[in-house]
Write a structure and sequence with these properties.
The chain is of the alpha/beta class. The protein has helices at about 15-30, 50-60, 80-95, 110-115, 130-150, and strands spanning about 1-10, 40-45, 70-80, 100-105, 120. It has one domain (about 1-150): 3-Layer(aba) Sandwich (Alpha/beta knot). α1 runs parallel beside α5 (about 130-150).
Length: about 160
């Protein structure tokens, strides 16, 4: 199952980008034998300043056709890492070819796109900067693959 991080904004070189690359490389290595990956980041940018609706249109264009859509949103479901791993495994086992994790811009995700999503995921009640959410999601993808592989990275 291919994994797409479909995100608003361009991430410049720096520690966040380094972490994302590292975790997604680890995810690809660990997930390959499990039918997970590869993972890629697809960045979109609303250069005209059209707000959430314009960002949503760009995000929707970037989401692969037929992909399961999981929006990262503060109103989403809070999951433990093992529960997230289980969810990824279920999507894979149900034959999903692609899953798109959608991360909005500074104002979040347009309500119409959020309504269209198959799942909403939250990293807690706090609001996180969207650039950090990319890092956190990348790490959780690697952790999920490690859990599914029975590797010792995740400790209970």
């Amino acid at each position: 199952m291919r994994v797409h991080l479909v995100v608003v904004g361009r991430l410049r070189a720096g520690p966040e980008l380094d972490l994302i690359k590292d975790y997604l490389t680890r995810f690809d290595r660990t997930g390959r034998a499990l039918g997970l990956g590869p993972a890629q980041v697809i960045e979109v940018e609303d250069k005209k300043g059209g707000g959430m609706a314009a960002e949503a249109a760009l995000l929707e264009k970037a989401i692969p056709s037929g992909a399961l859509i999981c929006c990262l949103d503060e109103r989403g479901k809070v999951m433990s890492s093992p529960d997230f791993a289980d969810q990824l495994g279920q999507w894979r086992d149900r034959g999903r070819q692609d899953v798109a994790f959608v991360i909005g811009g500074a104002d979040g995700i347009d309500p119409a796109l959020r309504e269209r999503a198959d799942a909403l995921l939250s990293f807690g009640k706090m609001v996180w900067p969207h650039m950090l959410v990319r890092v956190m999601l990348s790490e959780q993808l690697y952790r999920a693959a490690s859990i599914l592989a029975g590797a010792p990275y995740h400790r209970v």
